[in-house]
Specification:
- The chain is α/β, with parallel strands linked by helices.
- Strands 5-2-1-9-21-20 form a six-stranded mixed β-sheet.
- α1 packs parallel to α7 and α1 packs across α9.
- The protein starts with a strand and ends in a 7-residue tail after the last helix.
- It is built from nine helices and 25 strands.
Length: 400
């Protein structure tokens, strides 16, 4: 009987874990492993692009790829993980409950927006964290065109000045003008707890974000926290009132709650702290990847971020190592020394940096071309062709 590797999640890390495991299985003869992916739908949702328009198109089907590589797809949502019996209980789209066993488990269920207890936040804010919520936000923007023009209608507040918040805020002026007219007076305000714009970034990158914000008319409220949100806007803790028909929450993410079902140490984002081969120390049959894993990228003390760039490579290594453990093949310790940042800045362009020091290498149109190449091509699934897919899934091949 074939030994089963079960991968929970079909995002960047889950999809690549499956392909990488299938690759090593094929290299070893292809007869001893069964690889299955458990996820609600067989598609990759291109989450890094959810700040864009037409979000419903930002998905890539995986059925043909999985069929080509003999990867089984199980349509359902994982609910319980029992590491003692090595089973995962899941529920199908009709609500029926089933369970599936595994010899090796790759946990790749990603992350979700962290929503604190702020008055009105659950009822009156939008987010672009998941496909469904990003679609709801887009429908809301469309609905604003039926309202009379007003400062409140034309104002959007973005809560959180991190990567997602910046990309959304700098994209919004164009999205609002497309709906209200080129000459409409729109307003985008970013509310940020930190004392400076882009506080976690290099000086050069921060300055670029400031320049782009200024040119696009994006306002920042620094050293600010949200007191309450209501149907007509929000109030900051310093008493300032911002009238707005639209408030979007982008302030922080945390690992999928399934991580709490695995015994082990976690970081402050709920990610499981894993070994160099991405195993959970207390349960070596369980591997964590993508936004579920707190993993060291190098020997300099850097840790994988909750980014697509890291999720892809974490998935490749996790899938490879899970298969290697069943095939008596030496594992490959996870390493991802190269790190780049490419931040979309709307109509202003983009900014591209290299290294953990975030040295700015290109800006505006030149950087925008790099951003488009990354998000429209590089991060998409490989072709449903074994040769192409397996070459791309090699964890030791250069990604960026």
């Amino acid at each position: 009987m074939k030994k089963q590797i079960l991968i929970v999640g079909s995002g960047f890390s889950g999809m690549w874990a499956a392909v990488s495991a299938a690759r090593l299985s094929a290299l070893a003869g292809g007869n001893s492993l069964k690889i299955a992916v458990l996820a609600p739908v067989p598609e990759l949702r291109v989450r890094p692009r959810f700040y864009e328009e037409r979000v419903s198109t930002l998905v890539a089907p995986l059925s043909d790829l999985f069929a080509e590589l003999d990867i089984e797809f199980i349509a359902g949502r994982a609910e319980r993980i029992d590491c003692d019996t090595k089973t995962v209980t899941w529920r199908d789209p009709n609500g029926a409950e089933s369970s599936v066993s595994y010899e090796r488990l790759v946990l790749a269920t990603g992350s979700q927006a962290r929503r604190p207890s702020v008055a009105g936040l659950a009822e009156y804010t939008f987010d672009i964290d998941q496909l469904e919520s990003a679609q709801a936000f887009e429908r809301h923007l469309d609905s604003l065109t039926t309202r009379p023009a007003s400062a409140e209608r034309n104002t959007v507040v973005v809560c959180g000045g991190g990567f997602t918040g910046i990309e959304l805020a700098t994209e919004l002026p164009a999205r609002l003008r497309a709906r209200f007219g080129r000459d409409s007076k729109t307003r985008v305000v970013v509310v940020e707890r930190g004392a400076v714009i882009g506080g976690r970034y290099s000086d050069a990158l921060r300055k670029t974000i400031e320049d782009a914000s200024r040119e696009l008319g994006v306002e920042w409220r620094l050293n600010s926290e949200v007191e309450a949100v209501d149907a007509n806007g929000m109030t900051l803790k310093n008493g300032e009132r911002i009238a707005a028909a639209t408030v979007v929450w982008t302030a922080g993410v945390e690992a999928n709650p399934l991580s709490r079902q695995i015994a082990g140490e976690r970081d402050n984002q709920g990610r499981l702290i894993v070994t160099g081969t991405l195993q959970v120390p207390a349960h070596p049959d369980v591997y964590a990847a993508g936004d579920m894993a707190h993993a060291k990228t190098d020997d300099a003390g850097n840790t994988a971020l909750m980014t697509c760039q890291h999720a892809i490579q974490l998935g490749k290594f996790a899938g490879h190592n899970a298969a290697a453990s069943l095939l008596n093949v030496e594992p490959c310790p996870y390493r991802q020394v190269n790190y780049v940042t490419c931040l979309d800045l709307g109509a202003w362009g983009a900014v591209y940096t290299e290294g953990w020091e975030q040295e700015v290498k290109s800006v505006r149109d030149e950087a925008k071309k790099i951003k488009i190449a990354i998000t429209n091509e590089l991060i998409y699934p490989p072709a449903a062709d074994k040769t192409v897919a397996f070459a791309a899934a090699d964890p030791l091949a250069k990604f960026v």
